[in-house]
Amino acid sequence: MSASPIRDEALTAPASGIVEVSSYGRTKAGIIPLWVGEGDLPTPPFIREAAITSLNSGETFYTWQRGIPELRDAIARYMSRSYDKPFDRERFFVTGGGMQAVQIAMRLVAGVGDEVIIPTPAWPNFAAAAGISGARVVTVAQTYGNAGWHLDMEKLAAAITPRSRAIIINSPANPTGWTATRAELATILDLARAHGLWIIADEIYGRFAYDAPRTPSFHDIRTEEDRILFIQTMSKNW
After folding, report:
1. What is the pLDDT along the chain (238 residues), one digit of tens a residue?
2. Is the distance from CB of 106 to CB of 136 less than 8 angstroms?
3. How far apart, in whole angstroms, are the C-alpha atoms of residue 120 and residue 180?
4. For residue 172, how many other CB atoms are within 10 A of its CB?
5. Whether the predicted model's global pTM rises above the 0.85 cut
6. DSSP 3-state assignment of 232?
7. What's the 3-state SS for 144-197?
8. Is 234 helix (H, G, I), strand (E, B) or coil?
9. Alpha carbons 214 and 211: distance in angstroms, whole number
């Protein structure tokens, strides 16, 4: 039998449990659909109308590879307001969605023979993206107690090996809601600096704060030399 033309990493990637649950739920009347992290209201009319206007104006061709400059300018202004520091549009790359951004980030920093550290419970597509890139996933189990979920920094440090290339930090986290404090982010960043690791920072739920405009971020403490790739999306916050 000839070898499969598809890479083993792709063939052995597990099916999405989220897709399985949502596919089952779509056939059941009366179920409240909480499985994919989206609201229950349709896109507002002013956004739909803008999309219709764009289509009617013929804006249907290939565009700027990094994203339309005006869009990247708007993102830079928004981030500057949100994080109280200046951002230049050259820092931002527009993708088709958050999952595509995760895949690109993983391909940039990890491959066959590398290890990627993921605190768990975690959104399963992090591990899937690492696996498809050929990297080995190393999980660090969080604990749950009276104060909610907790990431043990000593366990995180112990998970680092010479093969480690990146740590994925999702804060606020899907599905647990764990939110790192500024001090915890600083400890993680110190670990990454000491071992030359990348941080893939998924902060897409950063505006989901009830006592502040946003949650703590690596943007608050990073320097220009730090190896951090930030993942953001519009849909989750807006």
Report:
1. 556 678 777 777 777 888 888 888 888 998 888 777 777 788 889 989 999 999 999 999 999 999 999 999 999 999 999 999 999 999 999 999 999 999 999 999 999 999 999 999 999 999 999 998 999 999 999 999 998 999 999 999 999 999 999 999 999 999 899 999 999 999 999 999 999 999 999 999 999 888 999 999 999 999 999 999 999 988 777 7
2. no
3. 14
4. 20
5. yes
6. coil
7. EECCEEECCHHHHHHCCCCCEEEEEEECCCCCCCCCCCHHHHHHHHHHHHHHCC
8. coil
9. 8
Tokens of 115: 């290890």
Instruction: Please count the helices (runs of H) and the strands (runs of E) in the chain.
Output: 8, 7
What's the rounded Cα separation, in Å, for the pair 18 and 124? Answer: 8
Q: How far apart are CA 115 and CA 159, in angstroms?
A: 10
Q: Which amino acid is at 204?
A: I
